[in-house]
Amino acid sequence: MGTVTDLTFQQLQAKLNKKGGLKIIDVRTPRSFERGHIKGAINIPYPSWSRTPKVAEEEEVVIVCYVGRRASEQLAKSHDKVFNFKGGMAQWQGEIETETIGSKWSAERIYNLVLGFLLLLSLPLSFLGPWWGTGFSSFIAIGAILFGVTNNNPITRIIRSYGFK
Asked: Which of 65, 106, 142, 163 is most exposed, with minimal Cβ within 10 Å?
């Protein structure tokens, strides 16, 4: 549908100074986004795009990534005004905004929440028969103990891959 136009730092800075209908999508990982991003950018990691993000027709969109332009080309298939910040964050010379995504919700806190939910799920199963509830909760408890005593916890690794510490 549209084409992708590369922007230099100066061109992007000029567009930001206009302050009119410009959306900045940072397609890097949540952890990279957390370390520093262009002020006002939103984080939609490219590898996790199950479908193209919705963008208003009149909006201009600037894609910021490491150095590539695959996400820009993907978005250009459905939107006319797509720009790629040439060189990615390595070329950004302006103000950087940082944030901590997982400050309130640590990986361990989310892990415990998931385990608690699974154990609560076993309560209705116990009404089907005592072996259902006891068996399911025992299975979850043994899994939690095994994952807790090893350093190789796949659930916590998955949670941390989303930027939680």
From this structure: 142
